[in-house]
Write a structure and sequence with these properties.
Residues 181-254 form the Large ribosomal subunit protein uL4 C-terminal domain. The protein has 290 residues and is of the alpha/beta class. Helices cover 40% and strands 7% of the residues. It has 2 domains: 23-187, Ribosomal Protein L4, Chain: A (3-Layer(aba) Sandwich); 229-281, no CATH class.
């Protein structure tokens, strides 16, 4: 047995652990994640229980930042009807499926609310023992906390001062950000994204011309004249005569071939009408001039 052996492919300090991303891209991602937390449908699609809370985003008084006891935090969550999301976390605790159990990652659970505060006057001590809750300072927002797994729409509980500070940090469409140099919020290309409502509005419908319905041509199925006799007759009326003549010649050849075979076998058979016609034609035919 080997004792004190080395691990296979040990992690090295010169590995490329990180990737460079533009600052503007990172800010754009955080702004998008914050915007998604204010859309109830997106938050509910993530599995958060927000059916009974009074508003989204949920903003509470700054007195919450002075909480120091967990029972005060629990009372607040029950008062704003957010305790159902914590109950979901309690019910989701389970053992991990797979080998992660051997690697000190035995238990997993769902995510709960994200509490965003401005100043820590005891709020971290009050909320830190409630399962599923994550606390973060509004001045140091982390994209992996707002959108865990890269999926936007986490349920956020803001304190009033933290929510007001967002305009100072990221600015608005009318005013530049105070904390970030020459930065303001990304403006959407469309002020109203309800495209179907825009297209059906009276202003746009009055400017559009009426659709042209006379130019609609029926698509006719093209048929092969070599396989379809009716189409060939339409293209070449004489084809019917040629086809009939070819059938007669074939019938005469078939009858004469059968007569020769019967003569060799000693079978006497009465000539059929095409054969009779062919024999009569041979007798009445004039010999060719030399």
């Amino acid at each position: 047995m080997c004792r004190g052996g080395r691990m296979f492919a040990p992690t090295r300090t010169w590995r490329r652990w990180h990737r460079k991303i533009n600052v503007n891209q990172k800010r754009y991602a955080i702004c998008s994640a914050i915007a998604a937390t204010g859309i109830p449908a997106v938050v509910m699609s993530k599995g958060h229980r927000i059916e009974e809370i009074p508003e989204v985003p949920l903003v509470v008084s700054d007195k919450v930042e002075e909480f120091k006891k967990t029972k005060e935090a629990v009372a607040l969550l029950k008062r704003v009807k957010a305790w159902g999301d914590i109950q979901k976390v309690y019910n989701s605790k389970r053992f991990r499926a797979g080998k992660g159990k051997m690697r000190n990652r035995r238990r997993i659970q769902k995510r709960g609310p994200l509490v965003i505060y401005n100043s820590d006057n005891g709020i971290c001590r009050a909320f830190r023992n409630i399962p599923g809750i994550t606390l973060i300072n509004v001045s140091r927002l982390n994209l992996l906390k707002i959108a865990p797994g890269g999926h936007v729409g986490r349920f956020c509980i803001w304190t009033e001062s933290a929510f007001r500070k967002l305009d100072k940090i990221y600015g608005s469409w009318k005013k530049l950000a105070a904390d970030k140099k020459d930065y303001n919020l990304p403006k959407p290309k469309m002020t109203n994204s309800d495209l179907s409502r825009l297209l059906k509005s009276d202003e746009i419908q009055s400017a559009l011309r009426l659709p042209k319905r006379d130019n609609n041509r029926r698509r006719v199925l093209k048929k092969n004249p070599l396989k379809n006799p009716r189409v060939m007759n339409h293209l070449n009326p004489y084809s019917k005569v040629m086809r009939k003549a070819a059938q007669n010649v074939e019938a005469i050849r078939k009858a004469s071939r059968q007569a020769k075979l019967d003569a060799k076998r000693g079978i006497k058979t009465e000539a059929k009408p095409p054969a009779k016609k062919a024999a009569k034609a041979k007798k009445t035919a004039k010999p060719a001039k030399k």
